[in-house]
Design a protein that fits this description.
Elements (H helix, E strand, L loop, with lengths): L2 H11 L4 E4 L6 H8 L4 E4 L3 H15 L3 E5 L2 H5 L2 H10 L3 E7 L15 H5 L5 E4 L6 H13 L5 E7 H5 L19 H12 L4 E5 L6 H14 L3 E3 L14 E4 L7 H8 L2 E5 L16 E6 L13 E4 L2 H11 L11 H13 L11 H11 L5 E4 L3 H9 L8 E2 L10 H11 L5 E6 H8 L3 H7 L3 E7 L4 H9 L14 H7 L3 E4 L3 H12 L4 E7 L10 H8 L16
Parallel strand pairs: 1-2, 1-3, 3-4, 4-6, 5-6, 7-8, 7-10, 8-9, 10-11, 11-12, 13-14, 13-15, 15-16, 16-18, 17-18
Helix pairs in contact: 1-2, 1-7, 3-5, 3-16, 9-12, 10-12, 11-13, 14-15, 14-21
Length: 559
């Protein structure tokens, strides 16, 4: 068969279901092979969006997502998405075309060193120089992408190699089992936990796995140890648990950070160096690193004990070995938990318009089903939602706290609907992020026939950077822009547009469009003046205010 056909068959043998991308002249033989395969080609309008979709497939399934581009500008358009997957720990393969490498008469037209470009932001990058190498190259790339810590791999397929004939056959995918922690480290972990007076668990992005969630939930219920999540660890344990203390949405000085400081033992579960660790390591405080791989030691993160191996197995061993006599009460953690819940209610029932972010967060949680998915772009709303929106199921708040790139929200939402077509899914994006990357894929969403709600939080500017600018004492400058009519824009793409005209309308409109088919855009004016509540100095005053309760805020639901 042709090398291009062998490549596609090798992807099929590895379980690949979708390829997202923008084909080009140099990979038409590959695309023709896809046409005759079981793999669905999802043609996107921009290569960057294709990688976001592929990475989302990997994030949700644990299996490699695949994106495709041509050479030159197509390949360079992949870079942001590749970095997004690599930093975010999502299994991804990107395949790029290239001019003939055995003989070329086109000089350097569109030719750059794509493999050299990809190498610093991937786990591996290579050019296929022989058709016979394809089965092992594809198999190894898939295995490497999916291995903990997951990430991105790149394969370049030149067009002359793609036409070569080979008698090699695909390698059938075989699942490998992860190693488990050694007996001595497990015993040290049990002793550390049983010796602690105020243990706490921090759930990082590396623990956001289904099997880990099952074991961790059982551990929390069995022992009563309270837990905190990072932004990318949300939902591993249901956050309506009476042991949930909050999410580290801010870098420091929030109620959750004070709770961490109050602990004498921190169980850091699945910590990922790309997510800034909460400030800890106080005097007398021990930190235990529980992960698939050893810790990256730096000036902030220096664990006292490392338990290296399959995390779910480690938690199972801990549950089995810890004495039934040990069950921790909330103690001092209860006050920080109560303060966080009351703080989340402030302005959450406000009728002000444009709408305050607290009201938007509350109404999102009230309307969304328990297993509904929020796909967050990057903006100020991400901090409000990750801090005050409780997630009940893992991977139901999809955000990027690694590369933190704008423009990913809509492509990620499309990826969710392809993997989980019956899951209610809402994209929350700012007007900046939507124009930057979301609008590009509106036609893709409509063409695919998916049901997707896109909430655009409209403030006519780059809201998060404005907050930073103001907190630095600088003048408001350089961050304002104008917007199109989003309702008419939706209609032009074959979607349906809705404009919210009052605070009360948001929840009503959202509940309505979640039950209707098709792609819906909801234009929601937002008032970010409340961002001042998240500034470090006033927040730390409230946190450390002699145990004072937040001011009464009236009726409302606890976040």
């Amino acid at each position: 068969m042709k090398a291009s056909e062998l490549f596609v068959k090798s992807l099929e043998a590895s379980g690949v279901r979708y390829i997202f991308g923008v084909p080009g002249e140099e990979n038409l033989a590959f695309v023709e092979a896809v046409r005759g395969s079981s793999i669905e080609l999802v043609t996107t309008r921009h290569e960057q969006a294709a990688v976001f979709m592929a990475a989302t497939y990997g994030r949700l399934t644990g299996r490699v997502g695949v994106a495709l581009s041509t050479l030159g500008p197509g390949a360079t358009n992949l870079v942001t998405g590749v970095a997004y997957a690599q930093l975010g720990g999502m299994p991804l393969m990107v395949i790029t075309g290239q001019k003939p490498i055995k003989r070329s008469k086109q000089g350097r037209f569109q030719i750059i060193d794509v493999v050299g470009l990809m190498r610093p932001i991937t786990k591996s990058a290579e050019t296929i120089v022989s058709a016979d190498r394809i089965p092992t190259s594809v198999y190894q790339a898939v295995r490497l992408a999916e291995a903990e810590r997951p990430g991105a791999v790149h394969i370049e397929l030149p067009e002359d190699i793609a036409e070569d004939i080979t008698s090699e056959q695909p390698i059938l995918w075989q699942k490998t089992r992860r190693s488990v922690a050694d007996e001595k480290s497990i015993l040290q972990l049990v002793h550390a936990v049983e010796s602690a007076a105020r243990p706490i668990i921090i759930v990082g992005s590396g623990a956001n796995r289904k099997l880990i969630g099952k074991q961790l939930s059982a551990l929390v219920e069995q022992t009563g140890i309270p837990f905190v999540s990072t932004q990318m660890g949300k939902g591993v344990v249901a956050e309506d648990s009476d042991r949930y203390l909050g999410t580290t949405a801010l870098s420091d000085n929030d109620f959750v950070h004070e709770a961490i400081r109050a602990a004498d033992l921190v169980l850091m579960l699945g910590h990922d160096v790309t997510e800034k660790p909460p400030a800890f390591a106080q005097a007398g405080q021990r930190v235990v690193h529980i992960n698939f791989s050893a810790a990256d030691i730096d000036t902030v993160y220096k664990p006292d004990l490392e338990v290296i191996g399959d995390i779910s197995d480690t938690l199972w061993e801990l549950r089995a070995r810890i004495s039934a006599a040990f069950h921790w009460e909330m103690g001092p953690f209860a006050e920080f938990q109560r303060c966080h819940r009351e703080d989340a209610l402030v302005e959450s029932d406000s009728d002000a318009f444009p709408i305050k972010p607290q009201r938007i967060v509350r109404d999102l949680r009230r309307v969304m089903p328990r297993d509904g998915v929020l796909s967050l772009d990057n903006g100020m709303y991400k901090l409000w939602i990750s801090r005050d929106y409780p997630a009940y199921v893992h991977n139901t708040v999809l955000l990027d706290n690694a590369l933190a790139t704008m423009g990913a929200g809509v492509p990620v939402g499309i990826g969710v609907k392809l993997v989980q077509p019956h899951t209610k899914t809402v994209v929350v994006t700012g007007d900046g992020g939507f124009i930057m990357g979301g609008m590009t894929e509106l036609e893709t969403a409509v063409r695919l026939g998916i049901d997707l709600v896109i909430v655009i939080l409209n403030d006519d500017g780059y809201g998060m950077i404005k907050w930073k600018q103001k907190s630095m004492g600088l003048d408001d400058f350089g961050l304002d822009f104008g917007n199109p009519d989003f309702v008419q824009l939706a209609q032009a793409f074959g979607a349906t547009g809705h404009r919210v005209g009052s605070a009360d309308e948001f929840a009503t409109v959202l509940a309505d469009v979640l039950e209707r088919p098709g792609v819906h855009i909801v234009d929601v004016p937002i008032d970010y003046s409340e961002n001042v509540r998240l500034d470090a100095e006033p927040l730390i005053e409230r946190v450390r205010g002699a145990g004072a309760r937040p001011e009464p805020v009236g009726p409302g639901e606890a976040a």
